[in-house]
Amino acid sequence: MSSSTNADEKKKESFNAEAASLLVNNLRATFASGTTRSYEWRASQLKALIKLCDAHEQQIIDALYSDLAKPPLETVAYEIAMFKNSCKAALKELKRWMTSEKVKTSIATFPSTAEIVSEPLGVVLVISAWNYPFLLSLEPVIGAIAAGNALVLKPSEIAPATSSLLAKLLGEYLDNSCIRVVEGAVDETSALLQQKWDKIFYTGNGRVGRIVMAAAAKHLTPVVLELGGKSPVVVDSNIDLKVATRRIIAGKWGCNNGQACVSPDYIITTKDYAPKLVDSLKAELEKFYGKNPLESKDLSRIVNSNHFGRLTKFLDDEKVSGKIVFGGEKDKSKLRISPTILLDIPRNSLIMREEIFGPLLPIITVDKLEESFDVINSGTKPLAAYLFTTNNKLKEQFVMNISAGGLVVNDTALHLAVNTLPFGGVGESGVGAYHGKFSFDAFSHKKAVLYRSFLGDAPVRYPPYTNIKMRLLKALVGGGLLGIIRALFGLS
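Structure tokens predicted for Aldehyde dehydrogenase:
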């Protein structure tokens, strides 16, 4: 074993609560020096992230293939390109985001001016997910840097190749006095969570999200929790079925083989329309992935044996095993499960109680499509909800009645690519939002500032208090000029 390997192991072993505390203290000292506050520093780090992508695209592709067998197109389009676009958008808008916002004042503070100043929170922690290990690690980092914070990134150990690459590349390209990467698993994450941060940003599942929130509560640390949930797809009968089917497939199996937080989790359609939808899904899936999808190079594998076992458990449920109408093939040795469609799944089955996060797609049937709203609202609020229809009234009802992190009509997952929209959950699907300026705001404090001169010092504020002072103050606080005039003349 080489000395460098020994050194790496020693470094990993030594990262405990004491090491985490030292790291945070060093970052606080750097933040206190003001290094991260300038526009020049923020812009230089964002530009460095773009250079990192350009110089190491193939390494990123290889790392994600090692972790997930992710098709190169998905890595390039949905991780690298989306991340670079976010960096470029932040660079383009950064000066405007940093500029204080002038706001109106009231007659009660006349003469005065006021503004809202965006200031960095301080030292923040980003804990990322394994399913999009490049994008979901670095997208929040854009917001943290743009807002002027020092930060620690903890990549997911479940995607070890990407975690290792991120640690190496961020160490080479970014300012290590302000931005650090900590690799590891539960012990390292626990050591980090024991520290006091100015914000914690976590992407993952609700179980760990509760642990993160509990740890943050000890220090009254604010959090952003990007979680998940059972994202439904409601399918009407008055649609272009082929286009709808292809878009559902793209959002489900074309996004990491269903291992995505906004992946369609289940479909709701009418009993009459379900057979047509199933036939269309079968036909398009075979076109996309062939007659033996387990051999397809265009499908990611299941991330590890634990998740493979979890998905197998869904399929082995006696309420579900007889409902497979397409797919269901498994290869445990290669961690592959084919695209699988299940029809008329009981709503009390295990697969309908938990987020699937894999290539299984149940279809629930109802008599009338409006019943789908009750089905969705009977569960926890999803991260995303999708509707395919040409019925404008149904669109309006869907937007008004379905509470979810985000809604898309006549497509799936594409709202992630619109950086003028906030991306985040509601209820058990998450806390807070990011993307575009919402990322900047997530890592900023909006500081209220009021400016006054020594002119206009009104005696009405000061004792001794009289009835006329009370009437004047009441009118001033109420903000009405007519009320002030009436108070001055003693009119009720």
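The first strand starts at residue 101 and ends at 103.
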